[in-house]
Specification:
alpha+beta, Severin, 5-stranded mixed sheet, 14 strands, 18% helix
Length: 269
């Protein structure tokens, strides 16, 4: 048939895909990973090390803050220990995503996690951790529990008020402290995040705590068990320690009136 032009045949080997998975590509990736100063010495490191993504850069997280994370941030955690049989280091790399972390931040954390694995010659097992839903393996690095606080480092695009100028709680939080089943079905006392609504101002079999601006408001449920007092006081002492600028106020009952969605006014008695 006249007028038709036979399409040109392209060979994938002439494209960039020809390098995909090749030794040359691996060398380029390794060379790029070697230029990240945060990874220096990780191949011989034994223990747990944490970095936070700050304006798309990998920054050391202070050891005094290990076990504490901010929900507006993303982190990379390296854990390594010697294999008793081979005496070689086994590596696990986790990237932790806070609930309010930006797409840019957790995207950078994911990319840098791959880069760290490349630096370690692909010997690491990679894990993704979501704030509040961490794996048991991850929690074991910190004695079985971690603390997640509001806020975070300012991103590469958005201005954030310096931490010393911020209120302890930039948004209202409501928690119920009561017995809930653990993974084995055993009932244990825990603080549970609840939606900030009228119906959740009551927790007959436990405690209600509201975190708002520079206050922590507490109400004890009418049917709260005696054995809840000690674990609740222990949990509240941790909150006071972690939020020293916040003032605790104890009330007998909460009342909440909806002004205009989604704003609410809370009163107490």
């Amino acid at each position: 048939m006249s007028g038709l032009v036979k399409p040109k045949q392209y060979d994938w080997k002439d494209s960039n895909l020809a390098m995909f998975g090749s030794d040359e590509e691996k060398k380029l990736k390794k060379s790029a990973a070697m230029k990240e100063p945060a990874w220096t010495g990780c191949e011989n490191f034994e223990g747990t090390k944490i970095w936070r993504i700050e304006k798309f850069k990998v920054k050391d997280w202070p050891k005094s803050e290990y076990g504490k994370f901010f929900d507006g941030d993303s982190y990379i955690i390296l854990h390594s220990e010697k294999d008793p049989d081979s005496n070689e280091l086994d590596f696990d790399v986790h990237f932790w995503i806070g609930g309010s972390s930006t797409q840019d931040e957790y995207g950078a954390a994911a990319y840098k996690t791959l880069e760290l694995d490349t630096y370690l010659d692909d010997k690491a097992v990679q894990h993704r951790e979501v704030g509040g839903k961490e794996s048991e393996e991850f929690l074991d690095y910190f004695g079985g529990k971690i603390t997640i606080e509001e806020g975070g480092i300012d991103s590469g695009f958005n201005h954030v008020v310096p931490s010393e100028e911020r209120l302890p709680f930039t948004r209202n939080l409501l928690k119920h402290f009561k017995k809930i089943p653990n993974k084995e079905g055993k009932m244990e006392y825990h603080a549970v995040d609840m939606p900030y609504t009228q119906k959740n101002l009551c927790c007959d079999d436990g405690y209600v705590v509201i975190f708002s601006e520079d206050k922590m408001y507490q109400v004890k449920g009418k049917n709260a068990k005696i054995d809840s007092i000690c674990p609740f006081n222990e949990w509240m002492s941790v909150q006071k320690h972690e939020h020293p600028r916040a003032k605790l106020q104890v009330y007998g009952k909460f009342h909440l009136f909806q002004l205009s969605r989604p704003k609410y006014k809370v009163t107490f008695s």
